[in-house]
Amino acid sequence: MDFVMSCLSVGENGNLSIGGCDVAALAEEYGTPAYIMDEDQIRENCRVYNRAMQEYYGGNGIVLYASKALSCKYIYRMMKEENMGIDVVSGGEMYTALKAGFPAERIYFHGNNKTDDELKMALENGVGRIVVDNVFELESLNRLSGEMGKTADILFRIKPGIDAHTHSFIRTGQIDSKFGVSLENGEAENIIKMADDMENLNVVGVHCHIGSQIFELEPFELAAEKMMTFIADLKDKYDISIKELNLGGGYGIKYTEGDTPIDYDKYIQAVSKVVRRISEERGIPLPYIVMEPGRSITAETGLTVYRVGAVKEIPGVRTYISVDGGMGDNPRYILYQSEYEAVRVNNPLAEKTVTATLAGKCCESGDILIKDAKLPEIKVGDLVAVLATGAYNYSMASNYNRIPRLPIVMVSGGKSRLAVKRESYDDLIANDL
Ligand SMILES: Cc1ncc(COP(=O)(O)O)c(C=O)c1O
Ligand SMILES: N[C@@H](CCCC[NH3+])C(=O)O
């Protein structure tokens, strides 16, 4: 039996090990609960994408890390070192990246309701691209750019009308979505024509993102086909040249044994064939390609280690194993009924003889990490690791019940260090007046 995360192994002492570090020793050193991430694996994932960009597009493009998956200064510094760009979706993410010294020109600013202050911040700092979502934003951006004496390089977020098979909350490419303008009814075409006449804006590209945790090739190929056709139509009809095509992220990862992600390399190869074919057929130059993977860069590189505080067997009904974290550090079950796998830190490959629900410590019945998890015998005091929590956990964490947020421990080559400190009770009251 294997782990769902390839960076895990079993150490000589029989404990779970990540990036050459004993998880029990890390739990001792940094306390529980804690996120533990394999830095080398994050870097390798970036390199897989950068190599694919080189191989299939001859390097004519950029890979952005969609930093909503996990945003902190440490990771932005890593992304800079790995020659990645980043996607930010709020003033807060942008601020964090800039404070980490991330180069502004490699930042793409997304969002369906950017405030004037956020747009000004992007313009002031020379953020590389602003991905415009709607006509109101377009007008604000043109006005603000004029007032500030700047020209903004923009892309448009477009709904290509593709319904990828994933949880309805994380689908974004279909017509009924709050994100972007739609291809179908001429909305996209109209807004681009409008922007083309605006003095302070430079229309550089188009963007789509069809959803997240997608396991199929076809929706990506279809999106690329629709977007390339749209680019060619704009050229034919209005002589508008779109130089940049941003195809978003969304590649699925392995949370449980049942998940069957495709090699990222294969997605990129398949999509590049579509892009090249339409470029030839329609006689338009190959656009500069942008990709925005988030989850697939960090999810499988991280785990969350918890300590068990209570085991409650309700005869004939269910057994609850309660740990010292929960929906505050991982809200994905309560939001999407997401599935995870957990292992006992000691002897993690022991036979799974127990079915029990791994519950959090929040005052909420739905505060569950894994419903009916398959586990080995677990007793109070044991350490349990929930796997593949490296994306959309820390970044979606809350202080519900005034529980301090967890630290992020990075491991690399058998050594560990803190990327984010554990919040203290004083941090919790720091803004209380
Ligand atoms: C615009 C945009 N780009 C990229 C991503 C990253 O998606 P994923 O983490 O699924 O790769 C998202 C999130 O779904 C997004 O909204
Ligand atoms: N936050 C989501 C995905 C949304 C992606 C952002 N558009 C998750 O945890 O799966």
Automatic annotation (TrEMBL):
Keywords: Amino-acid biosynthesis, Decarboxylase, Lyase, Lysine biosynthesis, Pyridoxal phosphate. The active site is at C363. Substrate binds at R295, R332, Y336, E364, Y392. The modification N6-(pyridoxal phosphate)lysine is found at K68. The keyword Amino-acid biosynthesis applies. Belongs to the Orn/Lys/Arg decarboxylase class-II family. LysA subfamily. Specifically catalyzes the decarboxylation of meso-diaminopimelate (meso-DAP) to L-lysine. This is Diaminopimelate decarboxylase. It comes from Monoglobus pectinilyticus.
